[in-house]
Amino acid sequence: MKTEFSLAQLADPDIAEADKILRACVHCGFCTATCPTYVLLGDELDSPRGRIYLIKEMLEKDKPPTQEVVKHIDRCLSCLACMTTCPSGVNYMHLVDQARVRIENDYVRPLTERALRAVLAWVLPRPGLFRLSMVLARFGRPLAALLPTSKAASASPGLLRRIKAMLALAPSRLPAPGPSGGSVFPAIGARRGRVALLQGCAQQVLAPRINQAAINLLTRHGIEVVLVKDEQCCGALTHHLGRDGDALARARANITVWTAETERNGLDAILVTTSGCGTVIKDYGFMLREDRDFAGPAAKISALAKDITEYVGGIDLQPLRQHSDIVVAYHSACSLQHGQKITLLPKELLSKNGFVVKDVPESHLCCGSAGTYNILQPDIAGRLRDRKVANIATVRPDMIAAGNIGCMVQIAGGTSVPVVHTIELLDWATGGPRPGLN
Ligand code: SF4
Ligand code: SF4
């Protein structure tokens, strides 16, 4: 794609990066076929190619984005299916990330939308506040029936529908909090390794059982696990809202404490059980590439970050039980399959450890969770969830496995089939408890 940035514009490293990405696109349109929003809405401007044109124009003109541009960029899930499909290696992720920052800085959203986004950016990364908000949401749930229902074709969902979507996602009860930062779980038997486990923000409130399963499995196989003190939310939530000041501050804080832990006690890896977070931590090196003090440490931390299945794939797991009567539908989270290119490994691990694993039709399509997307775009998210749940139902599973809490909550909202994390099933197969269902 031909670009027309001025030399002055190209002096900005972000614009130089965007120029490189845009020039790689040959507008072949292969990506449109696998883009969930194009599949649903059929509008070229809701396809990757359409959005790439919109972003190009916005950046080249160097003017505040129009309402039309914002509408179509906001509808993008950042699922990255387009990156998997693109034959030219266009890094759409870095392009849309930049577009979101530009929109956040230069576009004035309606007051209610600004307020909602500010609340999400403030509450979600703070587990204490998030827990409190979930308790309050429980009391608000009966009111949800009075709020307007989603309309499939809505162009711009109103505040009340978004609040309704938020209330619907709140669980009816909250589990007790898991272990706190600073905890160390020694290896059982001879120590074969030492890892940090990302505590996460929403996940530690909604499902501490996931990291508990990871700790159980790892320590049982000779790996010491540390929950690093003063670790923060990885920044993914605010990064996807275009609030890069917040996201980068969190990245720097985490790099500082993880680097200190590595130098003090040694870490073989930083493990992540939420693939949305893993994708962003693996990108810290890029996000901080222009930061003189943090570029090097960020690259090292990104190299240390691993999805839990990547690390567990290198351990000789000792299955104690065979669950050949359990059919597991494996939902491949977008951040895992498109963001981190981890596709076969989780399924292989589940099969090797005795489960009957079934692929879900249209597995490349997002379930509609996508961070805060199911709150901000409830109509599209609801349609994607219904489509995902219908596809899952065709394989008639006993359980659904996924590697990302966002997907788990989203899918669980549309089915009575238990939704569990892959690591919970692996823990169960190797001596842990049967997963805490839903
Ligand atoms: S598939 Fe790649 S090269 Fe083709 S239009 Fe999409 S982003 Fe551009
Ligand atoms: S990230 Fe997903 S929703 Fe966004 S353009 Fe790419 S395929 Fe479409």
Throw out a few tags for this protein:
single chain, 24 helices, alpha/beta, 438 residues, four-stranded parallel sheet, 8% strand, binds iron/sulfur cluster, five-stranded mixed sheet, globular, 9 strands
What does this structure look like?
This protein has helices spanning 7-10, 13-24, 36-41, 48-61, 67-74, 81-85, 92-106, 111-123, 127-144, 159-169, 202-206, 208-220, 236-240, 244-265, 275-281, 284-287, 295-304, 308-312, 334-339, 345-352, 373-376, 378-393, 405-412, 422-429; strands at residues 184-185, 193-197, 223-226, 269-272, 305-307, 327-330, 356-359, 399-402, 419-421. The chain starts with 6 loop residues before the first helix and ends in a 9-residue tail after the last helix. Strand 8, helix 23 (405-412) and strand 9 (419-421) form a beta-alpha-beta unit. With 438 residues, the protein is α/β, with parallel strands linked by helices. It has a five-stranded mixed β-sheet. Strands 7-6-8-9 form a four-stranded parallel β-sheet, sandwiched between helices. The model has no long low-confidence stretch (mean pLDDT 93). Bound molecules: iron/sulfur cluster (SF4) (2 copies). One iron/sulfur cluster binds next to helix 3, helix 4 and helix 6.
